[in-house]
Design a protein that fits this description.
Shape: globular
Strand order of the largest sheet: 8-10-7-11-9-12-13
Number of strands: 13
Mean pLDDT: 93
CATH architecture of the largest domain: Alpha-Beta Complex
Length: 329
């Protein structure tokens, strides 16, 4: 008999296996958001407490010579704040950091990593509250972030038929930046626009303020950490509905369109290029103008429909889109 591997399960299959084993094994009326969303959430008194964990692992999420230790420290915090932002109106409060480091790592690297972590913690007024350090073969940064909110969280599960699908800012820059690094390495003589794409990958910013402004109007919300395609799939599957997506409406930056002009490549970047950390959400059409006024860089790219199959259209013609992004397993 053939033995099944994690590779055959895939990342979300693995998550599903864990969720099936542990969800609701202990009945707790204070749990508001269980396993499977951007954060775990429970209620304590009048407050909602949010907890999330994310990891950055050398040669999986980054290469040490492609990003400075200072930027790496910043990114490690930002990607966790992005998960908190994906729940709506949340104030980040505490982080715990697990650090795996090879013995040969220079003291200067650690000092600059700490400076980057501290810079971003100060930005969000977060307290570094503990963690662990261990010897490892490669650099591992595991962050647990805790936030507090007064408002009920916006889950991935609440989209309704007829809701518009909105996104913040633009997509594809981070994936394009990573593509350039893989193609040319760090010593290449990059143009300013190319460097802007690389910076989008190395120096992301969580959309916390945007989420705080619009959360009360939304029916579902997530952040595009694994790519827009995955985010749309998660939102529709979690509400057992479908959607029509207009590819031509997905916003792209001027930098992306300056560096790349192949249409298929651009579509691949915006759909499958991960780590843009933009918000992806649904909102009733009646509230869409209010949301757009609060955050002007929002674009509506589609709407929720009945059915079970996510459909992509380009200038009115349905397209066959197959996932071709990064897979952990």
């Amino acid at each position: 008999m053939k033995i099944k591997t994690v590779s055959s399960l895939g990342e979300f299959g693995l998550i599903g296996l864990i969720k099936k084993a542990f969800t609701s094994t202990i009945k707790d009326k204070n749990i508001i958001v269980d396993i499977g969303d951007d954060c775990f959430c429970f209620k304590s008194g009048q407050n909602y407490i949010y907890i999330t964990k994310d990891m950055l692992i050398e040669d999986v999420h980054f290469k040490a010579n492609w990003i400075s230790p200072y930027e790496l420290g910043q990114k490690a915090i930002e990607v966790n704040i992005s998960d908190l932002a994906a729940m709506g109106n949340v104030s980040p409060k505490y982080v715990f950091i697990g650090l795996g480091i090879p013995s040969c790592t220079s003291e200067n690297f650690i000092k600059n990593l700490i400076k980057g972590i501290k810079k971003t913690c100060n930005k969000y007024e977060i307290l570094l509250s503990g963690g662990d350090t261990v010897k490892a073969n490669k650099i591992i940064i595991s962050v647990t972030a805790i936030g507090i909110g007064k408002d009920i969280p916006v889950k991935r599960t609440g989209a309704k038929i007829g809701d518009l699908i909105g996104v913040t800012n633009t997509f594809g820059d981070s994936g394009a930046g990573l593509y350039l690094l893989y193609k040319y390495g760090i010593s290449h003589n990059y143009s300013k626009t190319e460097l802007a794409l690389i910076n989008a990958h190395n120096k992301p910013t969580a959309k916390l303020n945007e989420a705080n402004k619009i959360h009360k109007y939304l029916t579902s919300l997530t952040d595009a950490s694994d790519g827009l395609f995955i985010s749309l799939d998660l939102i529709t599957k979690n509400c057992f509905k479908s959607a029509n997506i207009n590819i031509e409406k997905i916003p792209m930056s001027k930098n992306l369109k300056t560096v790349f002009n192949n249409e298929k490549q651009l579509i691949d970047f915006v759909l499958f290029g991960a780590e843009d950390y933009q918000l992806v959400f649904t909102v009733p059409k009646s509230k869409s103008k209010i949301v757009k006024n609060l955050v002007p860089n929002i674009t509506y790219i589609g709407k929720i429909t009945s059915g079970t199959r996510l459909k992509y259209f380009y200038n009115g013609k349905e397209q066959k889109i197959k996932y071709c992004g990064y897979k952990h397993f």
